[in-house]
Design a protein that fits this description.
With 519 residues, the protein is α+β, with helices and mostly antiparallel strands. Helix content is 55%, strand content 8%. It contains 22 helices and seven strands. The strands form two sheets. Strands 1-2-6-7 form a four-stranded mixed sheet, sandwiched between helices. Strands 3-4-5 form a three-stranded antiparallel sheet, with no helix packed on it.
């Protein structure tokens, strides 16, 4: 087994063990029902925990999640209603701050990545035919879901991994590798430049040995390719013919190696590994550093989090009115709703735990009816004036929906507020926000009508990330370490926040933007 594969297997084993222990701690009942006939139990337990956490973030129907656990357990399964209570308890526990990998911006790559790794490990034991059968019957994935996730046998095994020098030796005459090594050995400045470039990465990537290895080989190949190309340009016809041939070979081989590394090789990695590997870029590393500073203060286990409902009025709709529990909003939500109910169209933005949240108070009648239709077919309309304004969004039903004009919500993050720019960055990385609709009841209090998960379009996520990064850089002097002091918690909570008059007055009566809107 290659060094890369050895490091990779050890890293996944470490993650699986940590999450398996966490599942046992958070929900012994779910942990005890993890099947023993699907391969390494720690890995299966970790994958179960990650996918249940992902399901909560996506606001999946709790009965379906409970049913999936029953099917996964196979012969160990129990009746689904019993699992509903267990899933509710686990979701409630997962909304409290926990290990970094279970923060909102890691949940999707973690859930998909562990499932992909399980499929690889299981296939080594029983073959891909049986793996696909288990994915359909036990993990409840259809053929399209399996195909979209790329859960197929790889055309080439991970053992084909090669560092850049090894690749040069394998595909060239051998002179190229010797010359490339000589460049690094005899030019200390070049070696120092490569090391500095390779070190400009997020701490999270540095903690993943096999991906740090890939990142360093990319830096080496990129630098030597650039040096060979520059020498060919500067030397022109004055260079000896054999040296020009060697430089051309290093340049061309370097380009093909980088293309393979960023294309075919990276595509074979799991979504979790690709998310880590993306932290090798300087701006991505800085984004992660800001998120780390933010999370250490606002997502620390000792800080706790505000209560959020698992069930809403929508979940009780099939029951007769007399049988429905009164889904009263948590106190903090009611206090936020009291402030924002006075401002038509505007909603509250924030982060609870590590999960992005929006709250919107719908008027009883036409607007609340439209809120019940929101995302009924999976379609959502999100608009903003230009790509420079991804922090200021109008959200509603698709334009062809008959209720489109009955529900138009505005959510805005303040570009001059460090905390809100951190929250915009969290939203960009998480890729989805939990939107809670509240309505006023006859007694003057507030109830949670429903909660939905709203995914952000990829182009909008990228624009959000860029906007938040530029704002945070400007306010911290491009030093993420300063963030910890600047966003230290103050007395008071969300209820103490007043609606910002500056942007409240900026409402111009316009609805969704025109041609430059992203949806």
């Amino acid at each position: 087994m290659s060094r890369f594969r050895t490091l990779r297997r050890a890293w996944f084993d470490e993650i699986a063990e940590e999450l398996a222990w966490l599942l046992e701690d958070l929900s012994p009942a779910v942990a005890s029902a993890v099947p023993k006939d699907l391969g390494p139990r720690n890995l299966v337990s970790a994958t179960v925990l990650a996918r249940v956490a992902q399901a909560d973030m996506e606001c999946q129907e709790i009965a379906f999640v409970a049913g999936d656990l029953v099917r996964l357990a196979g012969e160990q399964g129990v009746r689904a209603p019993e699992r509903v209570e267990e899933v509710e308890e686990l979701w409630t526990a997962l909304r409290e701050p926990t290990v970094p990998l279970l923060r909102s911006w890691w949940r999707e790559p973690l859930g998909e990545g562990l499932l992909a790794h399980w499929a690889e490990i299981r296939a080594e034991e029983v073959g891909w035919t049986r793996v696909h059968q288990d994915l359909r019957e036990r993990w409840v994935l259809d053929s399209d879901g399996i195909w979209r996730r790329g859960l197929m046998p790889a055309e080439a095994p991970d053992g084909d991994w090669r560092g850049f020098f090894d690749h040069l030796e394998a595909v060239t005459s051998g002179q190229e590798a010797a010359y490339a090594r000589m460049l690094v050995t005899r030019w200390p400045s070049l070696a120092a430049e490569i090391e500095a470039f390779a070190s400009e990465k997020a701490d999270e990537l540095a903690a993943v040995p096999h991906l740090d290895l890939v990142h360093r080989e990319r830096a080496l190949a990129d630098a030597l390719t650039a040096v060979a190309a520059e020498n060919l340009v500067q030397g022109g016809g004055e260079l000896p013919a054999d040296l020009r041939a060697v430089l051309r070979s290093i340049r061309d081989t370097g380009k093909s190696y980088l293309a393979w590394l960023d294309g075919e090789f990276t595509e074979r990695l799991t979504p979790l590994e690709r998310a880590y590997l993306a932290l090798g870029a300087a701006d991505a590393a800085r984004c992660e550093a800001y998120l780390r500073q933010y999370a250490e203060i606002w997502c620390a286990p000792e800080s706790g989090t505000l209560p959020t409902p698992v069930f809403t009025e929508e979940d009780y709709a099939p029951l007769k009115p007399a049988e429905r529990p009164r889904a009263v909003a948590p106190e903090w939500m009611a206090m936020v709703a009291k402030v924002y109910s006075e401002d038509a169209q505007f909603g509250w933005t924030g982060t609870v735990g590590s999960q992005p949240w929006w709250l919107y108070v719908a008027e009883s009648g036409i607007e609340s009816a439209a809120a019940m239709r929101f995302k009924h077919d999976g379609q959502v309309r999100i608009g903003h004036r230009t790509l420079d304004d991804p922090h200021d969004m109008l959200v509603g039903l698709p334009p062809d929906d008959p209720h489109a004009q009955n529900l138009i919500m505005r959510f805005r993050y303040d570009v001059e507020d460090l905390h809100e720019m951190c929250e915009l960055l969290v939203l960009a990385r998480a890729g989805r926000v939990r939107l809670g609709f509240l309505v006023r009841d006859t007694g003057g209090g507030f109830r949670v009508l429903r909660v939905v998960s709203v995914p952000m379009p990829p182009a909008l996520r990228e624009a959000m990330r860029g906007k938040a990064l530029r704002a945070l850089d400007a306010m911290t002097g491009v030093d993420p370490r300063k963030l910890a002091v600047l966003i230290a918690p103050e007395a008071g909570g969300p209820a103490a926040e007043d609606v910002d008059d500056a942007w409240r007055d900026a409402v111009d009566g316009g609805l969704f933007p025109r041609g430059d809107t992203l949806f």
